[in-house]
Write a structure and sequence with these properties.
The protein is α+β, with helices and mostly antiparallel strands and 734 residues long. Helix content is 47%, strand content 10%. The chain has 32 helices and 15 strands. The strands form 4 sheets. Strands 1, 2, 3, 4, 10, 11, 12 and 13 form an 8-stranded antiparallel β-sheet that branches. A 3-stranded antiparallel β-sheet has the order 5-9-6. A two-stranded antiparallel ribbon has the order 7-8. Helix 3 runs antiparallel to helix 13 and helix 14 packs across helix 18. The two termini are 47 Å apart. 47% of the residues are buried.
Length: 734
């Protein structure tokens, strides 16, 4: 018999998703009475649009409790949706507190840098000298290494390491991993580690003479106006704390208990979304540390061989469509959280839910809210190219704009710095070479890998240098406000304006793109103008409209009219499909996913989503041909590499889907022992003993044929961790 809690949620989810979302109870923070001129409020039309975006997202899947906060300058909007406690039918309010999980790392990093500014800590100090019960290792581990996850301190090495259920002191939390060796020599790799941040929390106690909790409350929470933030221990919880939930086989269940004192410095705090906004405001106004220090914290660190890690000191930090983003995400039992800051635009977005494993949803909604606040509500779509070389060239152009514009704005409107470029012609020449279609055609996969590292120091950061130079030229030509329009208009608008500015100024050819790249760009601009997004979809996504079916004929017609270049609706079509359930509505899900592949045949994500649905429908024989075609594209060759496939299987839709994808994976990559070993585990878990033994034999053969680890198994660290995590993003996402 279904328990009352499960029955209540099941009945809630049977309601039409859009209708259920529109009826979700909500409560918003009252307007600031001190702001008589209304400066503390967003205009009503903006808050209505933001509320609609939130409800559209919540309509796409199970929702229990959800809180949203947005601030820009003095304006602030905070709302809670749904229930913080289903059994007692208690609503989410602006006062509701959540476990903040890994956002705690940002608090710890600020505490460390405060002590550095006071001369009580050194970034280059050996952590063993600050935390004596952490033994010296085979290499020296510094505070700086720990802040950037470059230390080699391991992350959770098994399920048992993530399920602590009793309170631990600082010394006990460190002892959990203190005897484990380093995973690698510091600064040679990036490996996200909550244990490493526990060491930093212990160092805060040593340097300050205060407990970690007391230090945060006095020096971080109080000056940031975080009235309800605290460590998440039993004694600090009250009736406003959410009950946590998790999804298992599509059913909402209560979270398992976890005592987070075992990860105090890396994931042990709680607070409201308003507290998160307060911290974000303090970061952007340099209330907690100096502007120079905050600029250093927001700068991506790099490995010894010159690869940016997309993580600074306590913050994920990288460009997003021309915006410079500083953020942290968190996930653990009871919660998923996300804090996103845009220093150049003085904007903060904070999201929290009491359902675990919702990182993708929070990231997706944060981008929509960014569009609502920073891009006048416009819905940005990238271009889909039929020609594989065109697709690689376009990705390079997109990365130049995203990195260059973001870094320029961060350096001129935020705390960042850019060194003077002494060889602009050389940078332009290098970019023109990297994006030369003849060279790309010789080996598109290798060319795409180079392009995705075009911002790295090891390649001279040429994408940043060229893009920032172009942004400076456009700022002089059109004024600073024009720069803020390019994130919504896209990279082709940016390049078209730059070429026009060069013509008007008589700019030397050495500071322009060379041929044939210039010809490709002009061809792209002309094609994009022809295949323009329909007016009714410029501020709306297909997954947000009441009846997306009415738009399908126009999308299909556009795909036929402009097969070479057109707007990419893949993400929206996949989201429409995900709105249909896995059981009675599976045919509709398959229909929309097939449509996504039809109008975006080169989309790896569309093919992967359709493959999973086909496995659920027990149409396994259709999966391998679908993925083989994706693997033939440069993007697919990277996205479907063995280790990338394994990362996608951390949280599969079902054991059957995971097993099916692994079977397809070994057919695509029979040389990968990692895939064979993972398949053996899955086969054994499903009771397929003979198949498991056969997979292990294949794994041994593959390992014997390739004694050294695969190159893609050591890049960018060890992949996502099982609960707490940073703001994970695909390397190619901009």
């Amino acid at each position: 018999m279904m328990k009352p809690l499960g029955l209540f949620i099941a009945l809630l989810l049977l309601v039409s998703p859009a209708l259920a979302a529109s009826r979700l109870p909500s409560e918003c923070e009252p307007a600031n009475p001190a702001a008589a001129d209304g400066s503390g409020e967003f205009p009503e039309e903006v808050t209505r649009a933001l509320d609609a975006m939130v409800r559209a997202e919540l309509a796409q899947g199970p929702t229990v409790g959800f809180s949203v906060g947005v601030s820009r300058g003095s304006r602030r909007w905070v709302c809670g949706y749904g229930l913080r406690d289903v059994a007692r039918k208690l609503p989410v309010t602006p006062r509701t507190t959540y476990r903040l999980a890994s956002i705690t790392k940002s608090f710890t990093a600020v505490a460390v840098l405060q002590l550095v500014e006071q001369g009580k800590l050194s970034l280059d100090a050996d952590i063993h000298t600050l935390v004596p019960n952490y033994p010296a290792k085979q290499w020296t581990v510094t505070v700086r290494d720990l802040l950037g996850h470059l230390s080699g301190v391991p992350t959770y090495d098994g399920f048992a390491a993530t399920i602590n259920v009793k309170p631990l002191s600082t010394a006990e939390a460190v002892s959990v991993f203190s005897e484990k060796p380093l995973s690698f020599e510091p600064r040679t790799r990036y490996l996200y580690s909550t244990w490493g941040y526990n060491l930093l929390g212990a160092a805060v106690e040593t340097a300050s003479g205060q407990s970690y909790r007391d230090y945060l409350r006095e020096h971080v929470f109080q000056p940031a106006g975080m009235a309800h933030a605290d460590l998440d221990v039993t004694a600090t919880r009250d009736e406003h704390q959410t009950v946590g939930y998790r999804l298992k086989d599509g059913v909402v269940k209560t979270s398992r208990f976890l005592d987070v004192s075992s990860r105090f410095g890396g994931g042990g705090t709680r607070g409201t979304v308003g507290d998160m906004l307060g911290f974000g405001r303090a970061v952007l106004t340099h209330t907690l540390v100096s502007r120079d220090t905050m600029g250093m914290m927001q700068s991506s660190m790099a490995t010894r061989d010159g690869r940016l890690t997309d993580y600074g000191m306590g913050f994920a930090t990288y460009p997003l469509r021309g915006h410079y983003l500083v953020a942290h995400a968190g996930g653990q039992p009871e919660t998923t959280t996300l804090l996103v800051m845009f220093p150049a635009e003085d904007t903060v977005i904070a999201l929290a839910t009491n359902i675990e494993g919702e990182a993708k949803r929070l990231r997706r909604l944060s981008i929509r809210l960014m569009e609502g606040v920073l891009e006048a509500g416009a819905t940005r779509r990238d271009a889909h190219f039929a020609d594989p070389v065109d697709a690689v060239v376009y990705e390079g152009l997109s990365r130049i704009v995203s990195y260059g514009l973001a870094y320029h704005l961060w350096a001129t409107r935020g705390p960042g710095t850019l060194s003077p470029d002494e060889d602009v012609p050389g940078a332009f020449a290098r970019v023109s070479e990297m994006l030369d279609r003849k060279l790309i055609a010789k080996d598109a996969k290798a060319a795409l890998e180079r392009i995705r590292g075009g911002h790295d120091p090891k390649l001279g950061s040429v994408f940043i240098r060229v893009g920032a130079h172009m942004a400076r030229v456009l700022e002089k030509a059109h004024g600073p406000e024009r720069l803020l329009a390019y994130p919504s208009e896209g990279p082709l608008s940016f390049f078209a304006d730059y070429l026009a500015a060069c013509e008007a100024r008589g700019t030397a050819d050495t500071q322009r793109l060379g041929e044939p790249l210039r010809g490709d760009l002009l061809r792209f601009v002309a094609g994009w103008k022809r295949a323009e997004v329909p007016a009714e979809l410029r501020r709306l996504r297909l997954d947000e409209v009441q009846n997306p079916e009415t738009h399908w004929p126009a999308l299909k017609k556009a795909a036929a009219l402009w097969p070479e270049l057109r707007p990419d609706y893949t993400d929206e079509l996949v989201r429409v499909a995900e709105g249909f359930g896995w059981r009675k509505q599976l045919p509709m899900r398959l229909r929309w996913l097939a449509r996504a592949v039809e109008v975006s045949p080169r989309s790896v994500e569309a093919r992967l989503a359709l493959s999973q649905a086909l496995l659920v429908a027990k149409r396994d024989e259709e999966v391998l041909p679908l993925l083989r075609e994706a693997l033939e594209t440069p993007q697919g060759a990277l996205a479907l590499a063995p280790m990338m496939l394994l990362k996608r299987l951390i949280e599969p839709e079902s054991p059957r889907v995971a097993l099916g994808l692994l079977r397809a994976g070994v057919a695509l990559h029979p040389e990968s022992p990692e895939l064979w070993e993972a398949l053996a585990k899955r086969e054994k878990a499903q009771g397929h003993k003979a198949e498991a033994r056969a997979a292990l034999r294949q794994a041994r053969r593959a390992r014997e044929a390739r004694p050294e680890p695969a190159a893609d198994s050591v890049v960018r660290g060890a992949g996502p961790v099982p609960d707490d995590h940073g703001l994970v993003r695909p390397r190619q996402a901009l």
